[in-house]
Each structure stands twice: as C-alpha cells, then as structure tokens.
Design a protein that fits this description.
The chain has 265 residues and is α/β, with parallel strands linked by helices. It has a domain at 7-91 and 172-262: Rossmann fold (3-Layer(aba) Sandwich), CATH 3.40.50. It has eleven helices and ten strands. Strand 4 and strand 5 form a beta hairpin. Helix 6 runs parallel beside helix 7. The longest helix is centred in the middle third of the chain and has 21 residues, at 121-141. It starts with 6 loop residues before the first strand and ends with a helix. GO terms for molecular function: ATP binding; ATP hydrolysis activity. This is Branched-chain amino acid transport ATP-binding protein. Keywords: ATP-binding, Nucleotide-binding, Transport.
Length: 265
C-alpha cells in the first residue's frame, strides 16, 4: 500500500455500464486536514464519495483508511470505524425534536434490547440522561440550542444541515465527507456551518473532505483543494494554485463559458 494518509485511494474505477464515472482516481486525504473536492458537474466527485463511504462498490481499485483496506465495506461498518458521509440531502426524523434526532444516533443503546427493557430500566434511564446531556451540548456547540425542542421537519434546510453535522458529534467521528453543504443555504447560516467545521477540525481533530461549488466557502475552509474532471484527479494544491492551473481552467471552460465565473469567485 502506498501513502500514509487518513484515506488513500488507489486507481479507483466505478463504471455504470459503459459510463466511467470514476476512471482511475488516486488521491490521499491527510489526517487533520479540511480537503476540498471541486470539479465541473459530472466530474465524478459524488460517485467517488459514495465508493469511499461504502454506498457503492468499486469496479476496481482500493480504498485504505489509516492503513486498513476498507474497499467495499458497507456504510454501517465504516460508521463504526468513524467514517461518515453526510449532506447534499439532509435526512431527519421530521416528527421528532432536534434533540431527539441527535439522541437517536449512537448505536448499541441499552434500550434497544427487550431483555434490557425488562431488567435494565435504571441503566436505560441513566443512558438516556447522558445522551440528552450530550445532545444539548452538541446543539450549544452548533449555536442552535434554541431549536432543541423544535420538530426537525419544521426547521430550515440550513439548520437541518447543522443538525446533520451534530449527528457526527454524537459518535466518535474521525473523518466526515460533506457533500454540497452550501446548496440552498443562506450566507449567514453557511458561515455558522463553516465555523462549526473549523472548530470540529481544530478542537476535536476531525478530518473533513468537502464537495462544494461555492468557491468562497472552499477558500475559507479548505487546504488542500483537489480538482477532479472526467473521473480522474486533475490537480491538487491551494485554491489559488488550482484557480491558476491551465488544465483546471480548460476543464471548467470545456463545460460552458458560464463556469469561467465560478473560478473567479
């Protein structure tokens, strides 16, 4: 195995019939980094995320996490190893409160077995109290403690994304893949999400990989930035280096002149 990153992807392919969504991608995600993943639509970014996170099995190639071969492991196994993929579409239990949504996350809860329901009531009560306290701490960290008792289905799209970020804090996340956190989120809330990501990275040691079209957001959070095009890694560096890269400019311009503005911002 090559490389010593938190995540190492080696010559990864994912084909759908004749379409090569990921076509020989190799990359490393350094532990403790906030790595940005950019590229034109159809570059293979989300498919790459889905293969790393076990949602899709690769056609060929390998994925390693902290030196362990995790290729093709299902999402729940990766969840227990601390690898979480989130966002793009925020999923929540809409009729439950935000606090209850967070309390649902940790696995292996005492109340989950019938035996414990009959014989372990005190243990369940203690665990629920601890979970409730942790959920409240998470909501406070995210500066949305005022939403604790609100039904999750009634909060805004951006607040749902914050709640989903909160879910990663209810377990021992090591690396979190964020897919289009900025989509449909107003600037103020996006800044709050950005603040939370930076704090989780700096204070709790989270590693993040972020797919995002908002270059201001990428510029604020991410170093390094990896650019994909046509299923492969095209370039890697700081955002300024990426923006100045002729191949990157060509990749964006090749999909229509409107993208020229994307790289400027």
């Amino acid at each position: 195995m090559q490389g010593t990153g938190m995540i190492v992807v080696e010559d990864l392919h994912k084909h759908f019939g004749g379409f090569r969504a990921v076509d020989g991608a190799s990359l490393e995600i350094a532990q403790g980094s906030i790595t940005g993943l950019i590229g034109p639509n159809g570059a293979g970014k989300t498919t790459l995320f889905n293969v790393i996170a076990g949602v899709l099995k690769p056609t060929s190639g390998r994925v390693f996490m902290a030196g362990e071969d995790i290729t093709g492991l299902p999402p729940h196994d990766l969840f227990h190893k601390g690898l979480l993929r989130t966002f793009q579409i925020a999923h929540e239990f809409s009729s439950m409160s935000c606090r209850e949504n967070l309390m649902m996350v940790p696995g292996d809860q005492a109340g989950e077995t019938l035996w414990n329901t009959w014989f372990g009531r005190k243990r369940i009560a203690d665990q629920e109290r601890a979970l409730r306290a942790k959920a409240d701490e998470v909501l406070e960290f995210l500066t949305v403690e005022h939403l604790a008792d609100h039904k999750a289905g009634q909060i805004s799209g951006g607040q749902k994304k914050l709640l989903e970020l909160g879910r990663t804090m209810m377990v021992d996340a090591r690396i979190v893949f964020l897919d289009e956190v900025g989509a449909g989120v107003n600037r103020t809330l996006l800044n709050t999400i950005g603040d939370a990501i930076i704090r989780l990275n700096q204070e709790r040691g989270y590693t993040f990989v972020v797919i995002e079209h908002d270059m201001d957001f990428i510029g604020r959070l991410c170093d390094p930035v990896i650019c994909m095009a046509e299923g492969r890694v095209l370039a890697e560096g700081t955002l300024d280096q990426i923006k100045a890269n002729e191949q990157v400019i060509e990749a964006y311009l090749g999909t229509g002149l409107k993208n020229k503005e994307v790289l400027k911002h």
